[in-house]
Write a sequence for this structure.
């Protein structure tokens, strides 16, 4: 696999040049954090960023997305007929995405791209993307990605893996899409023969710095009901305030709610992020709620991530160990602890 | 703080052993430096896991709502005022609750801690009012009072107002009057500036609802934002819906808020939502001399009336 060397000044120039071919998206400073945003002309992604509070899942699965439009005006020829919202999907380069976030997109894809159902909005956005990842040299204390089939240098979901060596960048081209982006950026100086071993060494060091680990081996062997009916849930979930912080920040949470909003005679059908933490999530039309109590909602979240998903897709757990939920939870509900409890 | 923890463990253990209470609501040590986890102790052994320090930002009265058993609850000043509010509002009975009172010297501001560390906090220790945080960049030691949440720095009631079993002697109060400087600065703005200010304030809100869910006042069986028949608020990212939520919530809490700061501590986006509730409490204080939760007899300002209430606004 080809590895390019890019010095930092050339990086900036090349990234901007690639903006002539691609819509660029990357981490930029946003109040007291960083966020993935579409870059303005001349704006560069902040490659020194540490983390984004919100995962980049919104690039493909926006917080709120218009799917269909309609008119309720009887004089309109298309009255009460849904039309697909018109949208453009120009090629987009997602610069600086973390390897575990790119891996998360692959997990989300398992749900939005099945034999039976294909989410056209998510898939079109996905196909348009080239993922130029940035390896994590210094993992956070809440990073347990190496326990989740990914890691700080994981290449799984990436088209290019960029490694910041301090002096410059090494860019490992992982796909034809990645090569096309590098060509558009004018990056073509091949790194020396030692580049591959340099990346391997840095990867080893980063992985060795991961202090958090989880294990799901026993969860895999237990039945759903054994885990579901375990006596600990009310106590495990006691502190949880059932807000949506974890589900919204999570790169793999994909649940959504579809709503119609009508303004006068013109309306839109929107796909919005939803959260299994809320009571409304499972409220039936009859008024019955199968998850009436808050602890049942907390249980659902962890059962889905650590058991149902694993059983359904046989692709590991629905978690990449990014640690956002741990850091942001107001009540210190820690998925690592809950996983340990379930895995006993 | 160490003797606070020891005393809380002893008192809670005794309460559970004697059968005076069925459970004790408190905190256990968190899995990350700088945060603890609300915890329900059911046995005297569980009680040995209870802790207290300056990282207990949530309001434990929130976990008391509608409980049916006899409950011991560890409560700082503001928590105790919300327990009083719960009693007035019939969420629990006075007889059911045994308050293990914590004379509070304030909670640290999670953002000040982060800024102090200059990066991810890998360890935090607290001793005799001194806090040391460790990060990759080294160790920093500061007096706790320089790290307080703003509601704690401006607190008027550090000692619990209901205090069945104090875990320590009362602490001296540090303020004698409300500090409304931030609210007054907003009041002084032109309408256009105010609009821009609030637009920016709420611009990062994801409506995760951590603020309302952390709030002991927000116990409606179904919050208006979750009503579906009819639906009052849109579910999308329309800023109108975001503003509607925050404004209505603040009004719904008017005259009941104890400025415990749990909403701001809970907000993952660090939105200063207390600027909204603070305005309500400022008005209640100015108009009615009212501060929520100071006793279990008087109903909240907007829940009652007297013949002497100001009424110049009735034209």
């Amino acid at each position: 696999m080809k590895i390019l060397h890019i010095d930092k000044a050339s990086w900036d120039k090349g990234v901007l040049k690639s903006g002539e071919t691609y819509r660029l998206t990357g981490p930029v400073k946003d109040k007291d954090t960083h966020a993935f945003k579409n870059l303005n002309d001349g704006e560069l992604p902040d490659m020194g960023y540490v983390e984004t509070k919100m995962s980049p899942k919104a690039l493909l699965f926006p917080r709120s997305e218009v799917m269909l439009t309609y008119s309720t005006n009887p004089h309109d020829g298309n009255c009460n007929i849904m039309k697909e919202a018109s949208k453009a999907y120009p090629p987009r380069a997602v610069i600086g995405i973390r390897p575990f976030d790119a891996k998360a997109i692959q997990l989300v894809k398992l749900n939005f791209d099945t034999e039976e159902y294909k989410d056209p909005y998510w898939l079109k956005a996905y196909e348009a993307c080239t993922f130029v990842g940035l390896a994590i040299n210094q993992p956070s204390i809440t990073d347990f990605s190496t326990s989740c089939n990914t890691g700080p240098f994981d290449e799984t979901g990436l088209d290019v893996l960029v490694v910041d060596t301090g002096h410059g960048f090494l860019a490992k081209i992982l796909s034809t899409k990645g090569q096309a982006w590098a060509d558009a950026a004018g990056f073509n100086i091949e790194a020396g023969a030692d580049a591959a071993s340099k990346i391997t060494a840095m990867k080893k060091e980063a992985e060795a710095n991961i202090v958090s680990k989880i294990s799901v081996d026993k969860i895999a062997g237990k039945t759903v009901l054994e885990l579901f009916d375990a006596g600990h849930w009310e106590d495990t979930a006691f502190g949880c305030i059932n807000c949506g912080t974890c589900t919204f920040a999570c790169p793999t949470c994909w649940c959504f709610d579809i709503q119609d909003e009508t303004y006068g005679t013109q309306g839109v059908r929107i796909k919005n992020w939803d959260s299994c933490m809320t009571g409304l999530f499972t409220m039936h039309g009859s008024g019955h709620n199968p998850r009436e109590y808050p602890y049942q909602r907390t249980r659902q979240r962890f059962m889905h991530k650590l058991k149902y998903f694993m059983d359904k897709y046989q692709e590991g757990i629905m978690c990449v160990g990014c640690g956002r939920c741990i850091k942001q939870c107001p009540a210190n509900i820690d998925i690592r602890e809950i996983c340990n409890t379930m895995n006993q | 703080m160490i003797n606070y923890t020891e005393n809380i463990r002893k008192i809670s253990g005794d309460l559970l052993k004697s059968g005076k209470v069925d459970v004790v609501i408190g905190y256990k040590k968190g899995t990350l430096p700088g945060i603890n986890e609300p915890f329900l102790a059911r046995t005297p052994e569980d009680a040995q896991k209870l802790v207290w320090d300056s990282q207990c930002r949530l309001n434990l009265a929130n976990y008391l709502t509608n409980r049916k058993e006899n409950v011991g609850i560890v409560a700082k000043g503001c928590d105790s005022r919300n327990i009083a509010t719960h009693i007035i509002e019939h969420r629990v009975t006075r007889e059911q609750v045994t308050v293990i009172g914590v004379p509070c010297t304030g909670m640290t501001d999670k953002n000040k801690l982060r800024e102090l560390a200059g990066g991810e906090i890998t360890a935090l220790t607290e001793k005799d009012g001194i806090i040391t945080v460790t990060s990759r960049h080294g160790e920093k030691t500061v007096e706790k009072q320089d790290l307080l949440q703003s509601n704690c720095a401006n607190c008027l009631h550090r000692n619990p107002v209901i205090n069945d079993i104090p875990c320590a002697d009362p602490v001296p109060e540090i303020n004698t009057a409300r500090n409304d400087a931030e609210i007054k600065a907003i009041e002084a703005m032109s309408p256009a500036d105010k609009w821009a200010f609030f637009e920016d304030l709420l611009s990062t809100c994801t409506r995760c609802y951590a603020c309302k869910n952390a709030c002991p006042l927000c116990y409606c069986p179904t919050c208006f934002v979750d009503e579906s028949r009819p639906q009052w608020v849109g579910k999308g990212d329309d800023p109108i819906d975001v503003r509607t939520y925050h404004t209505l919530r603040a009004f719904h809490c008017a005259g009941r808020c104890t400025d415990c700061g749990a909403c701001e501590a809970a907000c993952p986006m660090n939105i200063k939502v207390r600027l909204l509730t603070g305005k309500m409490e400022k008005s209640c204080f100015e108009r009615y001399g009212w501060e929520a939760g100071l006793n279990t007899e008087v109903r909240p300002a907007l829940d009652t009336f007297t013949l002497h209430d100001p009424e110049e606004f009735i034209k």
Notes: Chain A has a mean pLDDT of 96. The radius of gyration of chain A is 22 Å. Chain A touches chain B through 46 residues (CB under 8 Å). Chain A is about 30% helix and 20% strand.
